Amino acid sequence: MSDPRTNDRIRVPEVRLVGPSGEQVGVVKIEVAIRLAQEADLDLVEVAPNSKPPVAKIMDYGKFKYEAAQKAKEARRNQANTILKEVRFRLKIDKHDYETKRKRAEGFLKAGDKVKAMILFRGREQSRPEQGVRLLQRFAEDVAEFGQVESNPTIDGRNMVMIISPLKNKSEAKAEANAQRAASKARAQGRDTDEVAAADDSAQSDESSPAQATNEEK
């Protein structure tokens, strides 16, 4: 990717100018935009060349390039250090085996590795993919303190796969876990509310029946 055009290299009649603090200045002639950048002892950088007119921002271009390079370097390092660890399930899994795999996945996530949770279907189990989805969603909720779902459950041949990536820090992990628990609680409460409403409707229907019968007798 080539560097953006800056200052006198921006050869267009006018630009939509963004100030150094992100404020929208509006559409101005290129000469005015360059002068404003020079007066601020900064650079004019074309950030959206394909817009009509192009968008240019007043900024410290040297600082911008340095920060961009640092972010790219950090991204490459994180990508190189992240390993995809696999945890396999059967659709019918006992509690002990499940807990063992959960703890193993938490260890991988704590170490900064991604987890590939895979369900291996046998025979007719392939006709019940919804059970696999429920198992993987439960697994994601159980490890939410340490990781978040990167890709939702998908069918891969005879298997079902879900990718969980590690959270960046403990505060984010706790917030994600709380959100998962709140979502689960809300779903449970929603089911309870629907059941109560259905019971109330049934009760009201039963109460109204004798009244209707009395009116008919009159």
Structure description:
There is one protein chain. The chain is of the alpha/beta class. Among the domains are: 7-61, Ubiquitin-like (UB roll) (Roll), CATH 3.10.20.80; 80-171, Translation initiation factor 3 (IF-3), C-terminal domain (Translation Initiation Factor IF3). It is built from five helices and eight strands, in the order ββαββαβαβαββα. It has helices spanning 30-39, 61-81, 95-110, 129-142, 170-217; strands at residues 14-18, 24-29, 43-48, 55-59, 84-90, 114-120, 147-156, 159-166. The strands form two sheets. The protein has a four-stranded mixed beta sheet with strand order 2-1-4-3. A four-stranded mixed beta sheet has the order 5-6-8-7, covered by helices on one side. The termini are far apart. Mean pLDDT is 82; it is low at 209-218.
Mean pLDDT: 82
Portion of residues in beta strands equals: 15-25%
- Main sheet: strand order: 2-1-4-3
Largest sheet: 4 strands, mixed
Return the CATH topology of the domain at 80-171. Answer: Translation Initiation Factor IF3
Shape: elongated
What's the CATH architecture name of the domain at 80-171?
Answer: 2-Layer Sandwich
Looking at CATH, the homologous superfamily of the domain at 80-171 is: Translation initiation factor 3 (IF-3), C-terminal domain
Helical coverage, percent range: 40-55%
Report the end-to-end length measured between terminal Cα atoms: 88 Å
Low-confidence stretches: 209-218
Number of strands: 8
What is the H-and-E element order? EEHEEHEHEHEEH
How many alpha or pi helices?
Answer: 5
Structural class: alpha/beta
